[in-house]
């Protein structure tokens, strides 16, 4: 439905989550130079260029004080999605269990990733409007004897919820008690709104050796078509991620790795001001939607805004597109089994201010 509505003439697509502005100029220039250098267009080492792994390691130490050995604890992949599949396979290898607890609503391509890795989805539903992380009792209810992994996504797609230190402490304690690993999908870590904080579950005491942290250069530098990501983990865990990565894609594109390395080296921590832009867009869109009678859910960062339309979401999305040209996404696509009361919709905020303002004007 989203593709159909978004393809209409004059549609204002607020459903699909990719920037409409140019990504990192530093990355693009360095990649172009690599493309014009014949020796830089062959296979890279399987785990990524040493220069990129060095920059990834330096970035996490600079930003979070987190130390990862560039040679043994960083695996560069062909997208965050590939990092996800490879990391799940690594967890299954280490625990001998392939049940994956995922928190609904969740990124739609998480379910295919779990299936591709050979796992079984174990959904755990978060409650609107805050979408707070689960209690230990809720985690117990989702778990069975096959559970070996929990996926934690913060900031969260689709809700924009940032996990708090207290929430992550509960998840961490539960994982230690049940010998469960964590795949931390942190691809929106750079897009936390001013005044909010990104807390890494890998930094919770006892969790570094049982957490694989994922990120994406495409998200960090607004270059979503580049498909370069990475996984960070303790050396023995990273070896298992690397083994899975080798079987999946062998190596990420070499010229693009050069571009990402240059961008990380030059990055001052602001990522072009996207966190401020997205916070501004959230505020503007939230006001416009509230004026139409929607209840907007709180968010701390990320690419999206979720709101309660107070009527069936699919009907609302169609009528909104018909009446205003603004396209949104029913939240039902983010569940393994859609909720009985399906009134929530998602809008993107990872666009230029002009694009969001156009949508706000159309909303009236």
TrEMBL record:
GO cellular component, one term: mitochondrion
UniProt xrefs under CDD domains: AAT_like
InterPro entries membership: Aminotransferase_I/II_large, Kynurenine-oxoglutarate_AT, NHTrfase_class1_PyrdxlP-BS, PyrdxlP-dep_Trfase, PyrdxlP-dep_Trfase_major, PyrdxlP-dep_Trfase_small
MF terms (GO), sorted A to Z: kynurenine-oxoglutarate transaminase activity; pyridoxal phosphate binding
Keywords: Aminotransferase, Pyridoxal phosphate, Transferase
Family from the record: Belongs to the class-I pyridoxal-phosphate-dependent aminotransferase family.
Stated name of the protein: Uncharacterized protein
